[in-house]
Amino acid sequence: MFKSTINMMKLKIKITPRTPLLVASGKTFEVTGPDIQFVRVKTAYGETVYIPGSSLKGVLRGGMEAILGENEKWKAKICCTSEKLCHDLFRNKKDFKNKLPYRHHCPVCRMFGSGDLASRLEISDVFPYDFEETDEDKGKKIGALEAMVSSRTGIKIDRKTGKTSPGALFEYEILGGGELFGEFTLTNYELYQPGLLFTLFDLSNEGFLRYGHSKSRGLGVLNFEIQSMTILQFGKLKGNTVKGAGMVPHSGDTDSDNDYGFYMKGNDRIDTEFSCKDNVLYSTFQFTEKEPIREVAGLFKKKIETFLA
Question: Strands 7-17 and 121-123: what pairing?
Answer without folding.
Answer: unpaired
